[in-house]
Design goal:
Distance between the termini: 11 Å
Structural class: alpha+beta
Number of domains: 1
CATH superfamily: Phage minor tail protein U
Helix content: 25-40%
CATH architecture: 2-Layer Sandwich
Number of helices: 2
Number of strands: 6
Shape: elongated
Length: 169
Amino acid sequence: MITGPLKWYTVAETVRLAIMADLTNLPDRSSVVPGAIAWDECDCGLLAISVARIYLSDSFPQPLTTKVGAAACDAAWDVGEFVVQLIRCAPNPEGDDLAPTVAALDASAQEILRDAYELLQSVTVTLCEMKEQPDREIIDFFVNPLTSQGPSGGCVGSELRFLVALPRN
């Protein structure tokens, strides 16, 4: 079971490493990051994972809504919401052309959709494996729908959010 002060980092890094192992085209930058994910640059891509929020739960995935015991000491689980973004460079106008070429848009669409497929597959398989381990590394998980990101600032890609329940400690 994953426990301790770095339990959320451990989950994030385990998922990040699994995604990197499963991607056809690796991004140049990949990291667990603090806070909101910033698109500082996306020269050749960015894979970032962050913990968006942590809350108490007695009925996963629902947050605890009423006080349980003394100061919620009896809540069954801590739940972390993770955000994963896989970002690539978006096609941009070149020279006198005001819009990217259709060929550039098509190639970008193929790359982004391949990334989305591989991202969703990797995250779900990894979380299933973590839940099904003999020592159950995680209690449970829930994967939200994958959403498109951008184009913005020359970047485009996918975002996937998922919830993980761990024991309180």
